[in-house]
Amino acid sequence: MLPVSIPSILALALALAITSTAQEAEEVQVDYGQCGGEGWEGPFICSEASQCHEIDEFYYECLPLDAEVTVIDSPVIIGNPTKDPVIRGPNRRG
């Protein structure tokens, strides 16, 4: 059996910690990318220049730190409202 010293065990632990931290550091979401929400399995960390904001329970987005964020709780009309509008919002399917 090979003798194992405390310094070699500490060196191994440090190497594993650095490797783990480096892998986690790769999991940073880009600006305007999704960073959370119900069922989300991607990165939860935003870049240093942005912050994760809740848009709704299913979608969180990395927005720049200086962005004005206004979340409204009303329907959003997509497209030409006079021709087949698609209405999306709370309690609506679209």
UniProtKB/TrEMBL annotation:
Q: Where is the CBM1 domain?
A: 27-63
- One GO term of the cellular component aspect? extracellular region
Superkingdom of source: Eukaryota
Q: Where is the signal peptide?
A: 1-22
Per the record's keyword annotation, is Glycosyltransferase included, yes or no?
A: no
SUPFAM superfamilies xref list: Cellulose-binding domain
- Alphabetized UniProt keyword annotations: Signal
InterPro entries per the record?
CBD, CBD_sf
| A GO MF label | cellulose binding
Q: GO biological process: any one?
A: carbohydrate metabolic process
Q: What is this protein called?
A: CBM1 domain-containing protein
What lineage does UniProt assign to this protein's organism? Eukaryota, Fungi, Dikarya, Ascomycota, Pezizomycotina
